[in-house]
Every structure is written in structure tokens, then in C-alpha cells.
Specification:
alpha+beta; single chain; Phage_Mx8_p63_C; five-stranded antiparallel sheet; Bacteriophage Mx8 p63 C-terminal domain-containing protein; disordered C terminus; 46% helix
């Protein structure tokens, strides 16, 4: 014990500091380490003179204007905004330009130009606090989205990448909406009187509205149990189900929620030239009444499915507990 003390009986600074560090939360230790790295290796990096936060679809993306005028979006949050994992590293291939995390994937390679590969390389910079951060030039976001959309249109994306294309599509349309609004504001002088975050709020509202249309309303359990009762293999990734499952869903759900629902939803749903509905029926349900009622109904249906050993038993339970309504009665959705 005496070996750990100074001559005056105190704990040496190095050991005392180590003990204090061990008591700190892991996140705080990481921040301190990043600050230290910034002091040692980041002295020549540009500084985030104007930091801020951009909110897109419920995700916060840290952004900044660097001292040299470069606009950047931080890497981790940008990955999340595109529906990718926030932790990823630059992939290096000998003799080739490094592939940034937002563009990684074999299916994307044919759609990435050399110019984009160069423009989308991560930029290292220092925060005002001195920590080193990594980000992307803000202006390449539409180009990155375009890569995913081209890959989607060419049917080159893997099933696990399709949600990223959906995010990219929504972001592209949201940015276009904000862009035209910004141009009008600049032309009329309104940009001088609008609030600082007005455009960000418009983008956030647009993206959230678009995402809400695609939120999974029918739980996976519904389809798992439906497949079990019908003796069909459940496809958890592709969700390619037999066409007649649509008829079953109408019978199990829309014919039984409330009178007239199915007829009204079909009337509201636009159709393609071949007569197929362009959207899911539930996308026309109201937020305050329709969706809660649908979720309540689905919860009851799934419960009946779970206690039924076969389809005939389930049909009996369904007809007893949730009988079909007369479709001729009117209903305000």
C-alpha cells in the first residue's frame, strides 16, 4: 500500500487521474479522448464555425458551416437519415478511390460516378470544443439519394436495401419542395423575415408526412399467423404472399371494422391502368379514428389466430367475435 503513495502520503497525480477517469461514464471518457486527439492531430483541420441541427423525419442531423465555407452533414446522423446503420467505416480497395459508408454495397457500384466518389469522401473537421468529427458535403446528399433511386429503378437493390431507396425518394422530394420555397422566398425578399428554422420545419413536416404513409400498420404477427393457418410458408424478408391473401384480408379486416368501410376505402383509392389499387387501403384511414380502430381490430384478430389450431376453427372464432357488417350502411372516415 505504501508503494502507491508519495512521500507526503498523497496519491500520485497519474494514479489519481486514472481513478477519476474510471469513475466517468464511457461516453464522457470517449469525448475526452476525442478532445485529446483533436489537440494532437487536428490543429490544421477546418473548424465548425457555425454548428447547427437539421431535423429530418424524426432524425437529428448535426450540421455545420466550416471556416472555409464548406457546408457539412455529420456522418453518423446522415447514415441514419438514409436508413443505414450509423456506425460504418470507409472501405478501402487497393488502387481505387476509398468507398464512403453512405455508398457502400456491391449493388450500388454501377451507379456511382468517379466524380461523385471524389465529392462524397468524408471530411474531417474540428468542432468548436476541439473534438474531431467526420461529415459529408451537404450538397452531395441529392447525388447520394440519386444513386439509390437509379439502383432501385434497375432492380439492382437487395431486399434489405429497398427501405433505403424509399428514404432516398422521400428526401429527394422533400429537398425539392424546400428548394423551390427557398427560391420564392429569395425572389420576394421574404427570406429576410422568415424564422431561422422555417425551411427545416417545412422539410421535417414533409418527410414525416411521407413516412407516415409507409409505416407498417399490419403487424408481422398477422401475416405469420395467416400463413400458419393457411399452410403457407411465411416469407419474413420479401413478404411475397399469395394473391388471394388480399381477399382474405378484406374478409378478416375491412368487412368487419365498421359498416361501409371497405366500400368507402376502395372508392378513395386510385387505381392503375390495369385496375390494381395504387395504395394500401389503410392509407386512407383517418389518424384520429380510423387507424386506432384498425389497430384495435388487428390486435383482436391476432389473438383469435393464436388460439386457433386451424383455419376452420379461426373462422368460427372470427364470425362469433367479430362478425361482418352490412356494407350498405354509410360511414364517415
Amino acid at each position: 500500500m505504501s508503494e502507491d503513495l508519495n512521500a507526503n502520503g498523497t496519491v500520485p497525480q497519474s494514479k489519481g487521474g486514472k481513478a477519476r477517469a474510471e469513475r466517468l461514464p464511457a461516453r464522457r471518457r470517449k469525448e475526452i479522448a476525442a478532445l485529446g486527439a483533436g489537440e494532437r492531430w487536428g490543429r490544421d483541420l477546418p473548424v465548425a464555425e457555425y454548428p447547427g441541427t437539421l431535423r429530418i423525419g424524426g432524425i437529428e442531423i448535426e450540421c455545420a458551416v466550416l471556416g472555409d465555407g464548406t457546408r457539412v452533414l455529420t456522418q453518423a446522423e446522415l447514415l441514419e437519415a438514409l436508413g443505414r446503420h450509423r456506425k460504418a467505416n470507409v472501405r478501402n480497395v487497393e488502387g481505387e478511390e476509398p468507398i464512403p459508408p453512405v455508398l457502400q454495397g456491391e449493388s450500388l457500384k454501377p451507379f456511382i460516378s468517379e466524380e461523385l466518389l471524389k465529392k462524397s469522401q468524408p471530411i474531417k473537421f474540428r468542432t468548436r470544443q476541439g473534438a474531431i468529427a467526420s461529415g459529408y458535403r451537404a450538397e452531395v446528399l441529392p447525388d447520394i439519394c440519386e444513386v439509390y433511386l437509379k439502383a432501385r429503378d434497375a432492380n439492382a437493390l437487395k431486399p434489405q436495401q429497398r427501405h433505403i431507396a424509399l428514404q432516398a425518394d422521400i428526401l429527394m422530394r422533400g429537398l425539392a419542395t424546400v428548394g423551390i420555397i427557398a427560391l420564392v422566398d429569395a425572389a420576394t425578399g421574404f427570406e429576410k423575415v422568415r424564422s431561422r428554422d422555417a425551411l427545416a420545419k417545412i422539410l421535417e413536416a414533409f418527410v414525416q408526412s411521407e413516412l407516415r404513409k409507409w409505416v407498417r400498420t399490419f403487424p408481422a404477427e398477422f401475416y405469420e399467423q395467416l400463413c400458419r393457418l393457411r399452410g403457407v410458408a411465411y416469407p419474413p424478408t420479401s413478404m411475397k404472399l399469395p394473391p388471394y391473401f388480399g381477399t382474405l384480408t378484406n374478409n378478416i379486416v375491412y368487412d368487419r371494422i365498421a359498416p361501409g368501410v371497405k366500400a368507402e376505402l376502395k372508392r378513395l383509392t386510385p387505381r392503375t391502368a390495369t385496375g390494381r389499387p395504387k395504395h394500401k387501403l389503410f392509407q386512407h384511414l383517418t389518424e384520429d379514428v380510423g387507424h386506432p380502430k384498425l389497430r384495435e381490430h388487428l390486435a383482436s384478430v391476432v389473438t383469435l389466430m393464436k388460439i386457433s389450431p386451424d383455419w376452420a376453427t379461426f373462422e368460427g372464432h372470427l364470425n362469433a367475435a367479430l362478425p361482418r357488417w352490412n356494407d350498405t350502411l354509410p360511414l364517415a372516415l
